[in-house]
Amino acid sequence: MGTVLTVAFALLAPVLIVAFVAYFIYVVVRRGFEIRQLLTDGVDTSGTVVTKRRHRSSKSGTTHQLIYEYHDPLGRAHKHASLVTREVFDGYEEGRPIDVMCSASRPEVSAPKSLVEQARPAWERRRQAQGK
Q1: Is the Cβ–Cβ distance between 78 and 71 less than 8 Å?
Q2: Which of 88, 113, 84 is nearest to 99 (CA)?
Q3: Each residue's pLDDT tens digit in the chain (132 positions)?
Q4: Is 108 helix (H, G, I), strand (E, B) or coil?
């Protein structure tokens, strides 16, 4: 029985690693497209920080996450979690307001306004380089 489990694990482990890496790449690429969408059709709104989370890892250090709720221009409620820098994280308290940008065409897509504005200079340089 032990040999069967060892062989199964040996076959399954690489598949799981590839699946994890593929999912990570998907998430990063999707978030990049969402930030670009917010830069092109984002509208300002206000949200409320619901939860602040710190995740400590021996490999990647500490990540900081804000979970916030906001209402889109049509009044629908949305909830989103966003990884932020420590400085941004420390600047907010649970239950307090947060400036948010949401997409006019896809209101469920959002990010803290500070993150969108942080990406704006690079996006503008790229647009200028493309002649747009």
Answers
A1: yes
A2: 113
A3: 567 667 777 778 787 887 878 777 767 777 778 889 999 999 999 999 999 999 888 777 899 999 999 999 889 999 999 989 899 999 999 999 999 999 999 999 999 999 899 888 887 888 788 876
A4: coil
pTM for the predicted model, two decimal places? 0.74
Instruction: Quickly tell me which residue has 């994890």 as its tokens.
Output: 20
Residue 80: closest CA among 107, 120, 42: 107
Question: Would you kindly state where each structural domain of the chain is located, as residue ranges?
Answer: 1-42, 44-102
Tokens coding 4: 């069967």
The token pair that represents 85 in the structure block? 């820098």
Tokens representing 110? 């959002």
Task: Give me the half-sphere count of Cα atoms (radius 13 Å) on the Cβ side of residue 23.
Answer: 6
Structure-token pair, residue 50: 């619901």
State the Cα–Cα distance between residues 68 and 111, nearest whole angstrom.
9
